[in-house]
Amino acid sequence: MRRRDLIRAAMGAAAASTFTNASAWARDIPAVTLSDGETTLTKADIKAFAKGLNGIVLRPDSDGYDIARELWNKYWDLRPALIAKCNGVEDVIATVNFAREHDLLTAVRCGGHSMSGKSMCDGGLVIDMTPMNNVDVDVRNKIASVEGGAQLGNMDRKTQPLGLGTTAGVVSHTGVGGLTLGGGMGRLQRRFGLAIDNVLGVEIVTADGKMLRANEKENPDLYWGVRGGGGNFGVVTKFFFRLHPMNQTILNFFFSIPMEYAKDALKLYFDFSMSAREDVFAMGGVSMQPDGTGNARISGNYFGPFSEIDQMLRPIRNFGKATVDRVYPMQYVDVQRSIDDGVNAPGRRRYAKGGFLRNIDEDLINTIVDGMEPLPTRHIGVGLLPMDGAPARVGADETVWAHRDALYNIDSTSNWAVSDSDMDAQNISWNRAYWKDVEPFLGGGFYVNALMDEDQGQINSNYGHNHARLVEVKNTYDPDNFFRLNANVQPTV
Ligand SMILES: Cc1cc2nc3c(=O)[nH]c(=O)nc-3n(C[C@H](O)[C@H](O)[C@H](O)COP(=O)(O)OP(=O)(O)OC[C@H]3O[C@@H](n4cnc5c(N)ncnc54)[C@H](O)[C@@H]3O)c2cc1C
User: 225 CA distance to ligand 1 centroid (A)?
Assistant: First the structure.
């Protein structure tokens, strides 16, 4: 049994014990170190640490520990030694210092949507940023300052009533922290670029416990690194985003097409989305239920004059196979939370693979559709997002995002019930095999935020020509690889 497993068992026992919250502080607790060794956190150390925070520290036997360790992907059931709910920059600094001084394996959590569970850990310490979710808008200069634990919905709800917006993801309970640091794709990207293309600067606590500003003038190498390098360089306590004037009411469209026409529907999606004006954002996909029923879908938004929509959607209507054809005006802020539930709601076990398309052909479409097969407990969905427009106009070394030449982002996600853990192996190996068939058609690389089980070699080469520069930034700001639970850039010093 590995040390980490032993400590995990101890965490479970502590949680199951009948100690009250008050008496919980009367015990030492075992913990895991950065190098997967074992250490002990004494009750005195923990008490002193907790006393110094504005926020709270949760131990395995604290009320609220089980809720705080939950992630969106219920495949992960991880039990950290401590969860520090940080409430202010000084809390983040104190927590980083405590973790470093005790050599603790450390995770950073914002929205908890990491598919690979990187924002939680067994036996280590979690820097939980969720209490830090404030958003301020400087209307005159069109800048939003957003704390590092905010969700996308926190940001949209503040900026939209002011007629301003910036690119964020398509599900409002996703964290600004993780989404932005890895790139950040969303409904506004064809017009305004990725989330990282709108980051004007950050405030960040680095591994030495210092709070730094990173922007064009201050620490420009770090500013470059945080735009696509994930959580490798520190804990971002505040993001500064460029905002854009935009209409608050936009058009939402959704077409569902029966599975038997899925291949033609995907071809139509590719033709439609690539030829569409930049004020159209169209997502495509195919889904299959456990019983083998399924559909293809073309959905998205139009940000231009409402009178033009019928003409715009004519190719989809002329196709004539949609069984659901819905077009309606909606507040952008509501569009942003319109698919929060259903397949995107937390509460299921998941496995996903992702990549980029640089070429579309018939064999790819056939492989996507023919490869889908029903399994007794799992739902499978393939999703597509266009990568042309504003993201493609940014240079491949201006930010860490090395895939500016991609035409589409593609992913395949399997999900099954929390209670069906006995199906994990079957569902995961099916998704891996499916992806093995799709992968030869992709142009290489994957979205940093879609990291699943790629090895270090794949992670390095995914950063492409930017990897060497990332290593330099890592050597400067995190030479001991304190922030390692991410698409890790390994330091060489
Ligand atoms: C339902 C769903 C919808 C999604 N939709 C989109 C989408 O539309 N567009 C898109 O681009 N991606 C999307 N994603 C992927 C998403 O970008 C990643 O899952 C991302 O990691 C989520 O960030 P988070 O803060 O919620 O996650 P967390 O699990 O909390 O964090 C993920 C990682 O980010 C780092 N991190 C988080 N906050 C900070 C911080 N303040 N400082 C330093 N490091 C930090 C840490 O390394 C952490 O391990 C979606 C994911 C899900 C589950």
Answer: 17
What's the fold here for domain 249-450?
Answer: Vanillyl-alcohol Oxidase; Chain A, domain 3 (3.40.462)
pLDDT at position 443, please? 86
**Mean per-residue pLDDT, 211-228:** 98
- What's the pLDDT band for 26 if we cut at 50, 70, 90? low
Give the nearest ligand 1 atom to 237 CA. Answer: 41
What's the 184 CA to ligand 1 centre distance in angstroms?
9
Question: What is the pLDDT confidence band of residue 120, given thresholds at 50, 70 and 90?
Answer: very high
Q: Are 190 and 389 in contact (CB under 8 A)?
A: yes
Residues of the chain with CATH 3.30.43.10: 3-128
pLDDT in tens, 247-265: 999 999 999 999 999 999 9
How confident is residue 8, by pLDDT bands cut at 50, 70 and 90?
Answer: low
Alpha carbon 434 to its chain centroid, in Å, reads: 22
User: What's the 439 CA to ligand 1 centre distance in angstroms?
Assistant: 23
> Which ligand 1 atom sits nearest the alpha carbon of residue 73?
53
Mean pLDDT of the chain: 95
Beta carbons of 95 and 125 less than 8 angstroms apart: yes
Taking the C-alpha atoms of residue 161 and residue 151, their distance in angstroms, rounded to an integer, is: 17
Where would I find the H helices in 135-254? 152-159, 176-182, 189-192, 220-226
Q: Please give, one letter per residue, the 3-state secondary structure of 85-144.
A: ECCCHHHHHHHHHHHHHCCECEEEECCCCCCCCCCCCCCCEEEECCCCCCEEEECCCCEE
pLDDT above 90 (res 21): no
Strands 280-288 and 211-215: unpaired
Residue nearest to atom 17 of ligand 1 (CA): 179
Could you say which architecture CATH assigns to the domain 3-128?
2-Layer Sandwich (3.30)
Distance 112 CA to ligand 1 centre (A): 7
Percent of the chain residues topping a pLDDT of 70: 95
With a Cβ cut-off of 6 Å, ligand 1 is lined by 72, 108-115, 118-119, 129, 148, 169-171, 174-175, 177-179, 181-186, 230-231, 235-236, 344, 449, 485-486
pLDDT value at 389 more than 90: yes
Task: From the CA of 185, give the closest atom in ligand 1.
Answer: 11
CATH architecture of 135-246: 2-Layer Sandwich (3.30)
Task: Point out the ligand 1 atom lying closest to the alpha carbon of residue 71.
Answer: 29
Q: What is the 47 CA–ligand 1 centroid distance (Å)?
A: 31
pLDDT above 90 (res 12): no
